[in-house]
Amino acid sequence: RRRTPAWATLTLAAGAVLMLLSGTALAGYEVLNNRYAGNVQQENLLGGAGVVAEPGEELEGPLNLLLLGVEERGEGARSDTIIVLHIPASHDQAYLISVPRDTWVTVPGYWDMKVTEAFNAGFENGGGRVGGAQLIASVLHSLTGLQFNGAAIVNFDGFEQIIDELGGIDFCVDTAATSEHLVLVDGEPMGVGQAQREGRWDGQPIRYEEGCQLLEGWQALDYARQRKTLESGEGDYGRQRHQQQLLTAMADAAISRDVVTNLGKLDGLVLAGGDALVVDTNTVPLADFVFTLRDVGVGDMVSLRTNGGDYHSAGIEGVSAEALSPESLDMFQAAADDTMAEFVSNHVDFVNPD
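Below the sequence we write its predicted structure tokens.
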């Protein structure tokens, strides 16, 4: 089987690098680069938590990227998907670390809150996605000591559009669940709240059974967002694992269906998700990131979980909030110190099961 380049995973998580090269030459690169450079919005998402990667066609040193999945509702927004992608200085491995949405954090200029709420705090009052991302980057920097070489935001609707453009994805459901967000009304998915407002009490529950199956965009996104109804009882840690599995499945679909070598398919895929994307490379050309990661495949990616996958209460009275354990903070320190391989070998319980 052909090797899936890591940039495909980064692209489909953040949408940032679909227009660029994989590990091999791609015909029409200059045309694609010029076409898509203006299609993907680029903003300063990191603020003071950003650090410029060592320059050069091949970047030097370890890389830490912040990936945010965002849902906008009315005048507010939240980020329930927060992933730190760590690339060691050897550039031969990639580590995905999900930050629990209910992590209790101190937010400068505001008050203590869940990290998912911090995005909305920055989003409101005209800050928008940029304000939300900068506040989360600042909070995570204060909490973990990490500085980030780049960041990307994708609206949840962007995931659905990209998966549908791929023709769906092959996804192995590892624990059954019933959707807490959607019901089927006249054979089409509808939000539970909308169905209630419209008096559609005939909506049918949406059930995801164990087993490998082809999922449409709305199905894949919906399943990856479930936490309360997961029959494994894993809650948010199961949801985090499914989000990381979703990224891998999207990358596999892109390579197995020749998207990354077919200019027509590539064109449609980038344009499908471009409006939902915001990227920050911290002034470094995106092509330099792609070239640096050219030899990292999906098989080289390690999926990690904080707190060893166990809920670690923050001890806040009246609030269901979580704290990062000392070992979890050590994991982020390992990312900062570029000693992640050693940390993982000594903390195998922090590695997500396949």
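DSSP finds twelve helices and 14 strands in the chain.
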